[in-house]
Amino acid sequence: MAIFSVYVVNKAGGLIYQLDHYAPRADTEKTFSFPLDLVLRPHDERVVVAFGQRDGIRVGHAVLAINGAEVNGRFTADGKDVLEFLGNAANYPVSIRFGRHRLSSNEKLMLASMFHSLFAIGSQLSPEVGSSGIEMLETDTFKLHCFQTLTGIKFMVLADPRQTGIDALLRKIYEIYSDFALKNPFYSLEMPIRCELFDQNLKLALEAAEKAGPFGPGS
């Protein structure tokens, strides 16, 4: 079981804190001969697999490295276009590492804002008055848990679907936020959280949750 990441979103929908706690690696590296038996396409400034899953390489996976050198978006380490490089038979055999791309800071900001809007829509769609909005989204590989405070701050945790004790963890994170961010004289409400004690205590809470599941009395 694992906790993947934590997001804190202010009442306006802005991302004010994000921590990647654990990122499972699903990278696959293979050596290919010409012609490449995968169909690659440019997408969002990356080169991704459009067709031809094999050996752990899936549609949507991005080209992360070529011949051991990290790829920068759509370009190789020495500035060559990835698609042009892989379309040249003279460059084969070639070793390519595929995997899920890492979210950029801008993408994380955008996703936080999108969830803020979905949360509001969920509240409005509820047949009951005073609905709190979306508290959990579930997929086959992770669950997104959300806790909104009375002041509108949202704490979100992405975790393994089997991870227990997330409700208690969210409230623990709120407690840490109150103790180490709100009581910090240098912190301004609604602004990004940059506090070493907040970071330290949050990481300790995540580690405790992963090891013990639900928080016990007095934790």
UniProtKB/TrEMBL annotation:
Keywords: Endoplasmic reticulum, ER-Golgi transport, Golgi apparatus, Transport
SUPFAM superfamilies: SNARE-like
One GO-annotated biological process of the protein: endoplasmic reticulum to Golgi vesicle-mediated transport
Gene Ontology cellular component terms for the protein in this record: endoplasmic reticulum; Golgi apparatus; TRAPP complex
Presence of keyword Disulfide bond: no
InterPro entries: Longin-like_dom_sf, TRAPPC
Family matches, as Gene3D superfamilies: 3.30.450.70
Keyword Cell membrane: no
Classification via SMART domains: Sybindin (SM01399)
Subcellular localization, as worded in the UniProt entry: Endoplasmic reticulum; Golgi apparatus, cis-Golgi network; Golgi apparatus
Family matches, as CDD domains: TRAPPC4_synbindin (cd14856)
Record family assignment: Belongs to the TRAPP small subunits family. TRAPPC4 subfamily.
Subunit composition and interactions: Part of the multisubunit transport protein particle (TRAPP) complex. Component of the multisubunit TRAPP (transport protein particle) complex, which includes at least TRAPPC2, TRAPPC2L, TRAPPC3, TRAPPC3L, TRAPPC4, TRAPPC5, TRAPPC8, TRAPPC9, TRAPPC10, TRAPPC11 and TRAPPC12. Interacts with SDC2.
Function statement: Core component of the TRAPP complexes which has a function of guanine nucleotide exchange factor activity for Rab1 GTPase. Plays a role in vesicular transport from endoplasmic reticulum to Golgi and autophagy. May play a role in dendrite postsynaptic membrane trafficking.
Protein name: Trafficking protein particle complex subunit
Source species of the chain: Tachuris rubrigastra
Lineage: Eukaryota, Metazoa, Chordata, Craniata, Vertebrata
Gene: Trappc4
